[in-house]
Amino acid sequence: MAGNSFGHLFRITTFGESHGGAVGVVVDGCPPGIPICESDIQQDLDRRKPGQSDITTPRKEQDAIEIKSGVFDGLTTGTPIVMLAHNKDAQSHDYDHLKDVYRPSHADFTYSKKYGLRDWRGSGRASARETLARVAAGAIARKFLQTKLGIEILSYVEQVGSIRATIAPEVVTAESIEKTIVRCPEPHTAHAMIDLIRLVQGDGDSIGGIIRGVIRNVPAGLGEPVFDKLHADLGKAMLSINAVKGFDIGRGFDCVHLRGSEHNDPFKPGRDGTTKTATNNAGGVLGGISTGSDILFRVAFKPVATIAKEQQTVNSSGQPITLSASGRHDPCVLPRAVPIVDAMAALVIMDHYLRHKAQNTNF
User: So what's the pLDDT on residue 278?
Assistant: First the structure.
């Protein structure tokens, strides 16, 4: 089965290539009656689109979204929603020199082995341009979760290279994230990150980092053990994003340095009569099910594979060559990846909410 769909009850299928006519998505299973319009979706796409600043790819795309079905009189109808955005600034000729070349650490080689051919114009389906469709679908999920349940989903750049923000996730706001072009809510750290990205960019190179995800006001009880644990589905969602090489939740890999007495989250009665945890080392999930605490996770992105510096590789005939790639690429994907992380988190929470509600009629 082709891997172009994601979700169970709230299910999306994306389509389109980087240099094809359009990129789009089919959203199936969306509840009826959700107020939605193209401007609701466009504001999230504008955070992802290329050409936002001098530290992103210079490709110019307005990514103007069009809703083709599933919405009538400003409300979702419960039928499949089709959305697409036309590609306007492809410039496929920029990639002519890569037609028969395998870029190091890129999907060129593996796509050729998988399908026997590949779309070399901007990497086809291997391009992060496909994530436009995810962000469009995620915008619908985010609006439902926020307006109906009060769930807030946000993410921000926590680290670029060795430069890391120390701000507590609990105090981060959506407004503070958007104050800098790198989308780090800690101003002095953001400026250092921007300087580093510009330095790397000037050297014809790229750099990676970490995005922190925060999901607030999630009700306790979401998750479908044993194979669809909430954090397992979040991990799959994040690892499906281009350039992602790692995911952890709560204290994650850092918990190996702790003892059980240090890592355990003691329970306490909440002011509203509910049970709470005094700490949140688990990151809001226990046994694959949400606890009601904030869900906290991290997503690690590798440096962009396509760079201007000379690299040794081979062509499709196996002959060694020296490659200095041209074209329009991000020196650091993190600023534009923030809304993608938001979208994938929203899709997971939306799907698990609907699954839980279908099974538990008193929810």
Answer: 93
Residue 324, C-beta contacts closer than 8 angstroms, at least 6 positions apart: 204, 308, 309, 310, 311
CA 74 to CA 67: how far, in whole Å?
Answer: 11
* Sheet architecture: strand order including 311-315: 101-102, 311-315, 320-323
Query: What separation in angstroms does the CA of 282 have from each of 164, 277, 291, 298, 342?
Result: 22, 10, 9, 13, 20
Would you state the torsion angle of the CA atoms of residues 296, 48, 18, 8, taken in this order, to the nearest 10 degrees? Answer: 40
For residue 346, the Cα-to-chain-centroid distance in whole angstroms is 10
Beta 163-164 vs 75-76: how paired, if at all? unpaired
Position 304, amino acid: V
Q: How many helices (H) and strands (E) does the chain have?
A: 8, 19
Kindly report, residue by residue over 111-136, the tens digit of the pLDDT: 999 999 888 776 788 888 999 999 99
| Structure confidence by residue, pLDDT tens digits, 291-337 | 999 999 999 999 999 898 999 999 999 999 998 877 667 899 999 99
Average pLDDT of every residue of the chain: 93
Lowest mean pLDDT among 267-276, 301-310, 346-355: 267-276
Tell me if residue 347 falls in helix, strand or coil.
helix
The vertex-234 CA angle with 187 and 83, nearest 5°, equals 85
User: Are 177 and 154 spatial neighbours (Cβ–Cβ below 8 Å)?
Assistant: yes
d(C-alpha 33, C-alpha 336), whole Å:
31
Distance of alpha carbon 337 from alpha carbon 321, whole angstroms: 32
CA distance 141 to 129: 20
Residues whose CB falls within 8 Å of the CB of residue 355, separated by 6 or more in sequence, listed in order: 8, 9, 224
Contact 192, 180 (CB under 8 A): no
Per DSSP, 179 falls in state T
Q: How far apart are CA 230 and CA 349, in angstroms?
A: 8
Angle at 72 between CA 69 and CA 77, to 5 degrees: 75
